[in-house]
Amino acid sequence: MIGFIVKISNKIAEVVILIPINKPILGNEEKEAVLRVLESGVLTNASAEGGPFVRTFEKELASFMGAKDAIVVNSGTAALQVSLLAMNIKPGDEVVVPSFTFAATAGAVLLIGAKPVFVDIDLNTYNIDPEAFRKAITNKTKAVIPVDLYGLPAKIDEIREIAERQGIVVIEDACQAQGASYKGRMAGTLGDVGCLSFYPGKVMTTGEGGAIITNDQELADRLRMIRTHGQIKGYDSKLLGGNFRMPEMEAAIGIVQLKKLPKFLEARAKNARILMEHLNKAPLILPQVPENIVHNWYLFTVRFTSEKIRDSVREKLLKEGIGATVYYPTPVHKLPYYTSLKYGNIQLPNTEMASKTVLSLPVNPLVEIKDLEKMSKIIFDVLS
Ligand SMILES: Cc1ncc(COP(=O)(O)O)c(C=O)c1O
Predict the structure, then answer these.
(1) How many A from CA of 77 to the centre of ligand 1?
(2) Are residues 134 and 19 located together in one domain of the fold?
(3) What is the pTM of this model?
């Protein structure tokens, strides 16, 4: 049981979360995998190709993704940063991003000295609005980062068509969407490169970790070098890079988690289906999944008619131990650091509306049918 001090509306309350929104699911196989690395005495490898566990994880991940290559790194943020560097995005270049996302999407752009340009979302999917992207393009625009928010792939065909016409690189932020798909292709393979995160709350974890997915062999070679100081064998830097390497222990956990992932995703899909049926007649907006798209149900996010109603539903769920969470209460362009950069006055009405009215409900593999029934009953009680 986890005790949390949370701010609900304007009140501070302590709540015990019995059903968290997400949590890592780890067993003996992960423990044994870590021990195998410790016994080998090889904890990392600073060459471009990485150590044996990294290489195996990459091979199995590429095969899971249906892609030619996967390059693992030490976080999803690193995956974005390394991708931007490998794509030659430079200080002064503009990169179009949604503001309705985790701060890492825009932060990675700033970290390499480029300028994030925030655009609005489409309220049906909570993902970047392709038309808003088109309108934001200037002669400085070099990349776009569509985010597959909550685990639902963005409108990639429209985005790619606009980007390709203008020579703009598409870096897919699939950090929340591993296992989702779009017209039969995996989220993470939909852009020129795709980024995944293995943070503990994600659909699978390595502790901290991330990956870059690509079908371009020459780009894969560059990505591998950038993750380790631009080196190939060691002490031979040919490109500017950094230490973005995934340690061997994380890769060993990743190999085990990846094998379990299909079962995790199945359980999420089942829980989402049940919750969808329970809430079908509730006065709220359910997640919309367009045809030909498979959601990975990292987050099951509903929308209410007002902030007040959303907050009262959340308060009641939290009091009952259900970790209903708002992703994201503050759009990135309104976070303190971004307002200090004078982003605060941009008008993004759909983003603002979503941040005030959305609520994510737990459907992770540990959630049971009785929990879903309890959640639904609380929601109906508050709304009636
Ligand atoms: C949309 C999005 N982008 C990027 C990241 C960054 O991933 P990480 O936390 O592994 O650095 C996350 C994860 O939290 C995310 O949700």
Answers:
(1) 6
(2) no
(3) 0.97
Of 238, 257, 276, the one marking the end of a domain is 257
Ligand 1 centroid–CA 172 distance in Å is 12
Which residues have any ligand 1 atom within 6 Å of their CB?
A: 75-77, 101-102, 104-105, 147, 173, 175-176, 197, 199, 210
Q: Which domain holds residue 100?
A: 28-257
* CA 329 – CA 148 distance, rounded (Å): 18
Position in ligand 1 atom list of the atom nearest CA 77: 11
Calculate the alpha carbon distances from 184 to 14, 65, 126, 189, 250 in Å: 44, 11, 21, 11, 29
Q: What are the residues whose beta carbons fall under 8 Å from the beta carbon of 113, sequence distance 6 or more? A: 90, 91, 92
Q: Are residues 16 and 103 in the same domain?
A: no
- Given 201, 229, 257, the domain boundary residue is 257
Q: 152 alpha carbon to ligand 1 midpoint, in Å?
A: 15
pLDDT per position in the chain (384 positions), as tens? 556 666 665 666 778 889 999 999 999 999 999 999 999 999 999 999 999 999 999 999 999 999 999 999 999 999 999 999 999 999 999 999 999 999 999 999 999 999 999 999 999 999 999 999 999 999 999 999 999 999 999 999 999 999 999 999 999 999 999 999 999 999 999 999 999 999 999 999 999 999 999 999 999 999 999 999 999 999 999 999 999 999 999 999 999 999 999 999 999 999 999 999 999 999 999 999 999 999 999 999 999 999 999 999 999 999 999 999 999 999 999 999 999 999 989 999 999 999 999 999 999 999 999 999 999 999 999 999
Domain count, the chain: 2
Residue 174 alpha carbon to ligand 1 centre in Å: 9
DSSP type of residue 286: P
340 and 232 housed in the same domain: no
Mutation probe of ligand 1 site: the residue of 22, 171, 176, 360 with most atoms within 8 A of C-beta: 176
Name which residue sits closest to atom 7 of ligand 1, judged by CA.
76
Q: Are residues 45 and 170 in the same domain?
A: yes
How many CB atoms neighbour CB 91 within 10 A? Answer: 8
Residues 246 and 169 in one domain: yes
d(CA 149, CA 1): 28
- 79: CA distance to ligand 1 center in Å? 9
- Same structural domain for residues 230 and 274? no
198 and 345 housed in the same domain? no
State the Cα–Cα distance between residues 249 and 238, nearest whole angstrom: 28
Question: How many angstroms separate the CA atoms of 96 and 137, rounded?
Answer: 8
